[in-house]
């Protein structure tokens, strides 16, 4: 029987009816106009009703939600959801009441990793490490077909491992996190600092002098054009990611490393640093069984994974 998957972002909620093989039968995306929990639950319910109607009114069994933030396992409470400005919202219980079915809430990355494991680049593997570098840096660990959650449910926070003691301040409030150097938001922030320093003519040209236009792809182009300041930021981010992921491969010994997220998809130079870093720096024995693969499901990985977890 199909299940319902929900992908809850900061600006949209998307609902999909997904079959047991991980195929999307129908989906609906609606904008969140208001961010109060009651309003968001209502939008999710509307999206779910529309997706179920689109799938021909099929009966669905359970519902899985992938949401950005820290989530208490078992209870479905969003402890911290920065995109929505929520603290301690019992989303699982609110949705279960509104939808009249059981609801499981997981972190969006865990959902995406689960989707890739069962319907994407992880098929056939039992030990998988999934890394997404988009606006932030996140990862999920699957060991012996189980998602590793940790005691507090927040295992896998690769972006907040420290790479420079006392270094750049991260969005999480701490200093020297990997994400503060290599996350998309922070690549842009560092490029803007470079632009403001007047040391970058290529970046200034690419962004037409407007810091608001800068993207990680522009930074990569400026680095590849040989601009020293851009190259420094780009190389440092790539090397830090490569080393951090290599160390995780050494610790976890996965059969498959799946790479995804906007920065790794659209910045082949950074991706190259990561692959070369993993090949050069992970331990030889941990690398013997390793296959490096690209995430296959794109934006659908989270919603498919959430549905399959339901
Ligand atoms: Zn951090």
List its salient traits.
310 residues; Nucleotidyltransferase, domain 5; single chain; 12 helices; 5-stranded mixed sheet; 2 domains; binds zinc ion; alpha/beta
Structure description:
This protein has helices at residues 37-54, 91-99, 108-119, 179-182, 184-197, 201-206, 216-224, 228-252, 262-266, 268-281, 284-287, 301-309, and strands spanning 3-8, 12-18, 24-31, 63-67, 70-72, 77-81, 86-89, 103-107, 128-133, 137-143, 146-147, 256-260, 291-294. The termini are close together. The longest helix is centred in the last third of the chain and has 25 residues, at 228-252. By secondary structure, the chain is of the alpha/beta class. The strands form 3 sheets. The protein has a 5-stranded mixed beta sheet with strand order 3-2-1-4-8. Strands 11-10-9-12-13 form a 5-stranded mixed beta sheet, sandwiched between helices. The protein has 2 domains: 3-115 and 300-309, Nucleotidyltransferase, domain 5; 125-294, ATPase, nucleotide binding domain (Nucleotidyltransferase, domain 5). The mean pLDDT is 94. 42% of the residues lie in helices and 22% in strands. The radius of gyration is 20 Å and the shape is globular. The protein has 12 helices and 13 strands. It binds zinc ion. Zinc ion binds at residues 160, 170, 172, 174, 177, 179.
